Amino acid sequence: MRPTQPHSCSGPANIESPGTGGPPGGAEATPGPSLLNLLAGEERGGPLALSTPERTESCCARISAETPCLAPSNRNPAMVNEARGSGGPHPRSEGSSSGSESSKDSSRCSTPGLDPERHEKLRDKMKRRMESGDKWFSLEFFPPRTAHGAVNLISRFDRMAAGGPLFIDVTWHPAGDPGSDKETSSMMIASTAVNYCGLETILHMTCCRQRREEITSHLQKAKQLGLKNILALRGDPTGDEWEAEEGGFNYAADLVKHIRSEFGDYFDICVAGYPKGHPEAGSFEDDLKYLKEKVSAGADFIITQLFFEADTFFHFVKSCTEMGITCPILPGIFPIQGYSSLRQLVKLSKLEVPQQIKDVIEPIKDNDAAIRNYGIELAVSLCQELLASGQVPGLHFYTLNREMATTEVLKRLGMWTEDPRRPLPWAVSAHPKRREEDVRPIFWASRPKSYIYRTQDWDEFPNGRWGNSSSPAFGELKDYYLFYLKSKSPTEELLKMWGEELTSEESVFEVFASYLSGEPNRQGYKVTCLPWNDDPLAPETNLMKEELLRVNRQGILTINSQPNINGKPSSDPIVGWGPSGGYVFQKESQEDWHLTGAAARGKGI
Question: For residues 564 and 551, what is the distance between their CA atoms, to the nearest angstrom?
Answer without folding.
Answer: 17
